[in-house]
Amino acid sequence: MGSRADFHTHSTFSDGVLTPTELIELAYRRGVRVMSLTDHDTTEGLPEAFAATARHPDLMLIPGIEMSTDVPGAEVHILGHFIDWENEAFQQELARLRESRLGRARKMVEKLAQLGKPVTWERVQEISSEGAVGRPHIARALVEAGHVASVNEAFDLYLSRNGPAYVERERLTPRQVVELLLSVGGLSTLAHPRDLDHLDDLLAELKDAGLVGMEVYYQDYRPQQIQRLRALADRLGLLPLGGSDYHGLGGPQQREPGDIPLPMEPVERLLALARERGALERARTTGGR
Ligand SMILES: [Zn+2]
Ligand SMILES: [Zn+2]
Fold it and tell me: Which ligand is nearest to the CA of 248?
C-alpha cells in the first residue's frame, strides 16, 4: 500500500534522474498529495518543483533539503523540511559546502586516473547536469568508460568509504546541521537511521539540538524494523516520518514515490507543528515567486 505522503525525494538537481517537474508528475500520478523535494545540499530544484505544482492545486509541496554530515566512521543524513530556503546566509553556507564538494569530486577523478581507470571531468559534469557533482555521477562515468559493469561495482571497487579512489569531504556534524536548519525555520528529521550505531545516543543529542522526527518508513525497511524504530521514536518524542528516497536509479531497494507504508497520522502532526511555528505557509506560497 502506498502513502499519500513522501518526505524524501531527489531530482536531477542532486543525484536523481528525473527533473523536478517529472518527479512531481510521477508522484502525483501515484497518489502522493504531500511531498518534499530533498536534494542533497541544494535547494536549486525548488523553483521548478513549485512551478510544476501549479497544475496540481491539491498537491502540497514542502521545501526541503537533505544534508550530509559526518560522525566518526559513518555518514549521517539529516532532512530539513519547511525551510526558509531563500534565506541569504543559508544559501551562502550551501554554496560554501558545494565548493568543497566540487573540489572533492575532482580529487576522486584524479585518483581514478592514477589507478588506471580514467574518466573525464567534463563527462562527470555532463552526467550530473545542473546538479551537485557526487560519487553517483563518477560511478556512472566509470560504467560508461567500461571500467566497471555497474554503478554498484564502481562503489564496491573504487568509490565506497574504504575504496582506493575515495576522498573525505568537509562536512558539518549532525548537530551543526540540525542547528543550521533550525536557523531557517526548518523541521529536521534523521534520514534512514536503521543501520546507524549508537542510534539512541545520536537521537538524544539531536533532539536536544532541535530534531523533530526520524525516518521510520523507508524503502525496504521490514515490518519488524519499522516496529523497532517506531518504538524508539515514540519513546524519544520524535515524529515517525518516512520517505521513498526516490532517485529513479532502479535497484532492489529503490521505491517509487509514495511507495512506503507511512501512515497519515504523523504527517498530520508534522503539518500541525509547522503551522504552530509559522512555517506551514512556506509549503505553498513560495510557488510562483
Ligand atoms: Zn541519504
Ligand atoms: Zn536521500
Answer: 2
CA of 11 to the centre of ligand 2 (A): 10
Report the separation in Å between the CA atom of 39 and the middle of ligand 2, taken as the mean of its atom positions.
7
Determine the Cα–Cα distance for residues 46 and 20; give it in Å rounded to an integer.
Answer: 8
CA distances from 115 to 119, 147, 157 (A): 11, 11, 11
Name the pTM for this structure.
0.83
Give backbone dihedrals phi and psi of 59, rounded to 5 degrees, phi first: -105, 125
- List alpha helices for 86-222, DSSP H: 88-114, 121-128, 135-144, 151-154, 174-183, 199-209
pLDDT tens digits for range 195-224: 999 999 999 999 999 999 999 999 999 999
In angstroms, the CA 238 to CA 160 distance is: 31
Query: Quick check: 8 and 66 in contact, CB under 8 A?
Result: yes
Ligand 2 is an ion; residues with CB less than 5 A from it: 66, 245
Residue with cell 508534522: 270
**Ligand 2 centre and the CA of 289: distance in Å?**
26
